[in-house]
Structures are given as structure tokens and as C-alpha cells.
């Protein structure tokens, strides 16, 4: 059966590669991956733009160790860095500044960041008192911080606003007022060290492991899928036809769709024929897909101290302040101050002369429309005015473009306020046709980070979702 069975995987990101490698190992011989881009990896993109050392434009860490299959895989193949490369607690620490070159006291920064961690952990561990449960994460944090003595300290609030802005990166949101305090999802943080760095070959080394399991010719690059026609007549040999932008047509018994939630938001209504069921379209609409971008600044010389893990910027009035975020009368005013959303500039592992700025949400999308040189000049201006140090002009600027990348359309999934994450992720992951229909089973399956109820947003979630759909087919044929 498996010799005859034709399987098409749409997308060669972590989930698509994991699905195809698992199917091929199980004996399926007719597996093709159709990938829109000329490279594989999707939101994993290891490059060498500055020196012989790598820069990760997408995923950088494996989050969590215990029970994390991707961590296990990387460890088994000796692909992890010797020590975590984001270790601000030991020999280096974040430097917090306010405009005008004022370095804020480390003790105050430590106090506020620890309080912030405690408050978010309470929310993430679902330990909030009932009175807070209907609040947005932003509102819950504001109320809780106001009760703390740190709120009365000069500069306490500005560091707290920075913490909220920084948290937007983890959540992939424009603002923490978009997500719930009560975490209406089942995200599970794996135990052990949260930030696990990969060795000198970066994430590409794990992609290579999966690629080694694929016979040559399995992946067709530059082959964007335009339309998936499923539930074809009983008389047809194969239930599904996949039509590509370049007019190639592939017959298949099963198609595993792994495109990002961003791509589904843009194309799901036109990509499938017959149309997707309402439950799936609702899930695509309701789940959020936010943008997180990185701004790499390469300098001719290092100007920050050895023990500085990152230069963090605190503003008098932050874009995370609720009043600023929700002010309707100033519609596009935030575009003028998009740079206020940059949380700061972190030192980059293996690159002593490179800093990486982080920016999220609508401001990240706006930044993507600007020239690299404008972004670079703005960042240098910020670094000069906040630190007061002698900051040279930047020699190379590299900004990511995840929001406007037509084959990704954002960075990762979030669960908006009042959306039931479990219900919607499950609806997104459900194969078609549904069990109740009398058509050929498992014609269109869905993988990708957004379809994983517990590990959405992450590479290990993407990887496991690919295994899940491969195993669904393997079980189907072994029943
Ligand atoms: C800036 C950034 C930082 C991140 N940091 C981390 C991190 O540190 N740790 C972590 O665990 N996760 C991180 N992530 C998230 C992680 O990268 C993703 O969760 C994961 O890589 C998603 O894999 P995927 O297979 O689900 O989707 P994708 O990687 O998006 O793969 C989907 C593939 O489908 C292709 N495609 C799209 N449309 C079509 C079409 N029409 N036809 C054919 N092919 C198509 C795309 O080109 C892509 O290759 C980060 C992501 C970003 C953007």
C-alpha cells in the first residue's frame, strides 16, 4: 500500500520536514515536499552575513529541556552549545538606560524584572485569583504592579513598562492588552533551562538531520502551491489534486498542509476547493499571528563593556502604556515613534561587534517598510542618546522581514483575549474530511506550530505536529 500511496507535504519548515522524514522512514516511497521558497527551513533561517559565524534570522533557542523531543534530538547528536549563550546572570547583565545617558541602578532593574517574572509566572501557571481572570495580561500586570512598593520608586514604572514591551516579544503581540491574563490556552513550558543555544552550525544542523532522511528529489523548491482540490470524484485514482503557481499539478491521496497561520489567514478562503469547513475558518480567524523582528547592527568596533549582555531602553512614556496603545484620536501617530517599540539591543553570541535589536507588532511591520539605512541610523541615534557612550556609525545593518514575507506573513501564533486556544488549535489541526463524511479518509491534514495545543509558537511544537500527522497516516495504513 505504501508504495502506491502518494503524499504531498506543503512547506519545508520544521513541521513539513519532520512529517516527510517520518513517513519515508516508515516505508512510504511516494512523498514529495512542495516548498514556495528557494531554501528550506521556513521560520528557521541560519545565515552567515557578517563573518564565518552564524546569525539566526528566525528561531534561535530550543525552549525547555525536560520532555522536549527536539532538545533530546539535538543533545543526542551533540548539536547543542556547550553552555547557554544567553546567560545574563553569571558574568554579564543587562544595562538599563533612560534618555540622556542615565544608567539606571542594577538593584532597581533586578527588583522590577524579578517582580515581573513572579507576576507573569502566576498568570502562566494559572494561579490568578478570580478577580483577575477576566483581565487582559496588560491590565492584570498594571494593577498588580501598582500594589507593589516598587511602583513608588523613581524609575520603577519605566522599567516595568520595559518588561511589558519585552514580554511582547515572547507573546508576538503589539501589546499585552491583546492577550488574556487567565491564559485561555494549554501552553506548556518545558522544564529545565528555558534558553538552550545550538552549537556553531546553529539550527541548520537540526534541519540537516531531517534532510539526511530524505532521498534526493523529495523537495521541490520554488514550487508555491496555489490551490488544493480535495474530495475529487470516486472514479479518480487520487482524491486530491495540488495545483502550483508554476502550473505544475500533483495528484495525491493525502496532503499535509504546514504553511503558517499567517499564510492561512491570507489564502485559506481561496486555496481550498471545496472550501474549508466553518470551524477551521473560524480557528484561522480567531487565533492571532504576530510579528517579531530582529535588527542586527554590525559595528567596526565594540563600544559596550564586556559584562554588558544588552542595552535596554526605558522611555518616559512607553508605547506599552495603555493610554498610548489605545488612543484612537492619534490614529497613525505611533508610526512617527515606531522605534520606541524596540525593547533594546542584545549582545549576539559569537559576534563581539554585533548587537541585535528586538521589535514586535504593528511597529515591527512598519519598520519593515523602511530602508535599512534609516533603521540603522535611528538605532545609532538611540544608542548614542541613551548610553551617552561614543557609538561609531554602524557598518552593516540587517533587518528581518517576517511580517511582509509572503510565505510566512508574521512570526508566531498567539491566543487573543477571550479566544479559547485549545478549541481553536484543535479545530485547526483536525484532518479533512471529518470522520462523519463518507469520502476517502485523511485527504487534507494540517501541521505547523499553530496546530499544536501545548507547544504552539515553538520549533519543538512545529516538529511534533509534523510527527503527529505522519503518525496519523502510518496508523491509518497499519490498522
Ligand atoms: C524571529 C523569530 C524568532 C523565533 N524564535 C524562536 C525560538 O527562539 N525558539 C523557538 O522554539 N521558536 C522560535 N520561533 C518560532 C519557530 O521558528 C516556528 O515556530 C517554527 O519554525 C515553525 O515551523 P513550521 O514548520 O510550523 O512553519 P514554517 O517554518 O513557517 O514552514 C512553513 C513552510 O511553508 C512554506 N510555504 C508557505 N506557503 C506556501 C505555499 N503556498 N506553497 C508551498 N510552500 C509554502 C514556507 O515557505 C515555509 O518554508 C521564532 C520565529 C521567528 C520568526
From TrEMBL:
<protein>
    <recommendedName>
        <fullName>Amine oxidase domain-containing protein</fullName>
    </recommendedName>
</protein>
<dbReference type="InterPro" id="IPR002937">
    <property type="entry name" value="Amino_oxidase"/>
</dbReference>
<feature type="domain" description="Amine oxidase">
    <location>
        <begin position="14"/>
        <end position="474"/>
    </location>
</feature>
<keyword id="KW-0274">FAD</keyword>
<dbReference type="InterPro" id="IPR050281">
    <property type="entry name" value="Flavin_monoamine_oxidase"/>
</dbReference>
<dbReference type="GO" id="GO:0046592">
    <property type="term" value="F:polyamine oxidase activity"/>
</dbReference>
<dbReference type="InterPro" id="IPR036188">
    <property type="entry name" value="FAD/NAD-bd_sf"/>
</dbReference>
<keyword id="KW-0285">Flavoprotein</keyword>
<dbReference type="Pfam" id="PF01593">
    <property type="entry name" value="Amino_oxidase"/>
</dbReference>
Amino acid at each position: 500500500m505504501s508504495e502506491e500511496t502518494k503524499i504531498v507535504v506543503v512547506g519545508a519548515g520544521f513541521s513539513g520536514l519532520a512529517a516527510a522524514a517520518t513517513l519515508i522512514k516508515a516505508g512510504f516511497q511516494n512523498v514529495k515536499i512542495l516548498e514556495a521558497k528557494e531554501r528550506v527551513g521556513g521560520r528557521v533561517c541560519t545565515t552567515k552575513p557578517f563573518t564565518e559565524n552564524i546569525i539566526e534570522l528566525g528561531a534561535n533557542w530550543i525552549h525547555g529541556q525536560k520532555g522536549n523531543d527536539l532538545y533530546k534530538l539535538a543533545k543526542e547528536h551533540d548539536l547543542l552549545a556547550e553552555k547557554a549563550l544567553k546567560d545574563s546572570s553569571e558574568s554579564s547583565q543587562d544595562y538599563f538606560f533612560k534618555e540622556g545617558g542615565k544608567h539606571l541602578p542594577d538593584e532597581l532593574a533586578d527588583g522590577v524584572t524579578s517582580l515581573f517574572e513572579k507576576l507573569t509566572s502566576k498568570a502562566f501557571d494559572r494561579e490568578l485569583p478570580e478577580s483577575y481572570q477576566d483581565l487582559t495580561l496588560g491590565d492584570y500586570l498594571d494593577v498588580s504592579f501598582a500594589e507593589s512598593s516598587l511602583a513608588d520608586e523613581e524609575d520603577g514604572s519605566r522599567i516595568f513598562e520595559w518588561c511589558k514591551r519585552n514580554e511582547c516579544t515572547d507573546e508576538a503581540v503589539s501589546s499585552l492588552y491583546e492577550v488574556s491574563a487567565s491564559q485561555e490556552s494549554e501552553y506548556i513550558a518545558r522544564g529545565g533551562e528555558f534558553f538552550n543555544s545550538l552549537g556553531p552550525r546553529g539550527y541548520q544542523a537540526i534541519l540537516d538531520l531531517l534532510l539526511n532522511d530524505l532521498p534526493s528529489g523529495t523537495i521541490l523548491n520554488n514550487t508555491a502551491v496555489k490551490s488544493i482540490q480535495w474530495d475529487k470524484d470516486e472514479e479518480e485514482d487520487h482524491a486530491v489534486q495540488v495545483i502550483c503557481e508554476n502550473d505544475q499539478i500533483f495528484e495525491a491521496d493525502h496532503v499535509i498542509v504546514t504553511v503558517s497561520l499567517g499564510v492561512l489567514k491570507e489564502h485559506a478562503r481561496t486555496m481550498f476547493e471545496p472550501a474549508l469547513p466553518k470551524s477551521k475558518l473560524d480557528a484561522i480567524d480567531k487565533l492571532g499571528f504576530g510579528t517579531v523582528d530582529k535588527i542586527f547592527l554590525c559595528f567596526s568596533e565594540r563600544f559596550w563593556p564586556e559584562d554588558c549582555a544588552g542595552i535596554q531602553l526605558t522611555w518616559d512614556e512607553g508605547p506599552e502604556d495603555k493610554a498610548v496603545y489605545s488612543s484612537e484620536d492619534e490614529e497613525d501617530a505611533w508610526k512617527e515613534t515606531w522605534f520606541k517599540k524596540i525593547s533594546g539591543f542584545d549582545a549576539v553570541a559569537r559576534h563581539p561587534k554585533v548587537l541585535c535589536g528586538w521589535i514586535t507588532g504593528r511597529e515591527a511591520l512598519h519598520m519593515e517598510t523602511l530602508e535599512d539605512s534609516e533603521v540603522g541610523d535611528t538605532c545609532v541615534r538611540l544608542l548614542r542618546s541613551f548610553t551617552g557612550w561614543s557609538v561609531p556609525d554602524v557598518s552593516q545593518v540587517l533587518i528581518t522581514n517576517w511580517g511582509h514575507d509572503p510565505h510566512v506573513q508574521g512570526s508566531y501564533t498567539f491566543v487573543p483575549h477571550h479566544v479559547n486556544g485549545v478549541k481553536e488549535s484543535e479545530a485547526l489541526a483536525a484532518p479533512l474530511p471529518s470522520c462523519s463524511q463518507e469520502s476517502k479518509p485523511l485527504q487534507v491534514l494540517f501541521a505547523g506550530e499553530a496546530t499544536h495545543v501545548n507547544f504552539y509558537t515553538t520549533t519543538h511544537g512545529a516538529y511534533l505536529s509534523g510527527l503527529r500527522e505522519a503518525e496519523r497516516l502510518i496508523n491509518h495504513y497499519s490498522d
